[in-house]
Design a protein that fits this description.
This protein has four helices and two strands, in the order E-H-H-E-H-H. With 136 residues, the chain is mostly helical. It has a two-stranded antiparallel ribbon.
């Protein structure tokens, strides 16, 4: 199952900068990694509860249970994609000889197709969204 956040090519909202300092992006990536770890923790708990419900149903899957499991699995896939994008952003930073460089918004956006993650990375972590599993 694949969670599609954005097929790409979505323009950035006006208030986001056209470029970002590499040091600022690195700090934002560290904060983003912590946010993802918290979201993964909540997802793990939700999947555990869903699994307990499945076991309690003794093999009798009802529509609500299947729907809940499907939603949880979609969230897991979104977090996986965000983690991949974060890894790409960190790899981009690691490839630079020193960090005081400016990166274009397009370079950062190329790291991930997830618009919500693009916004968080380019806004220095100030941009929040409700699309991520659980609350921040």
């Amino acid at each position: 199952m694949l969670f599609a956040d954005d097929p790409g090519g979505t323009p950035l909202p006006d208030p986001l900068p056209a470029d970002v300092r590499a040091d600022d992006l690195l700090a934002t990536c560290a904060a983003e990694a912590a946010r993802q770890a918290q979201a993964l923790h909540r997802l793990d708990a939700a999947l555990g509860q869903t699994l307990a419900m499945v076991r309690a149903a003794a093999g009798q899957a009802d529509a609500g249970l299947v729907s809940a499991l499907t939603a949880d699995l979609q969230q897991a896939d979104q977090l996986r994609q965000e983690a991949e994008g974060l890894a790409q952003a960190l790899a981009l930073l690691a490839s630079l000889p020193r960090r005081p460089h400016l990166l274009t918004a397009d370079q950062v956006r190329a790291c991930t197709p997830i618009v919500a993650l693009q916004r968080r990375l380019l806004s220095g972590g100030q941009e929040r969204d409700c699309a991520t599993f659980g609350s921040d």
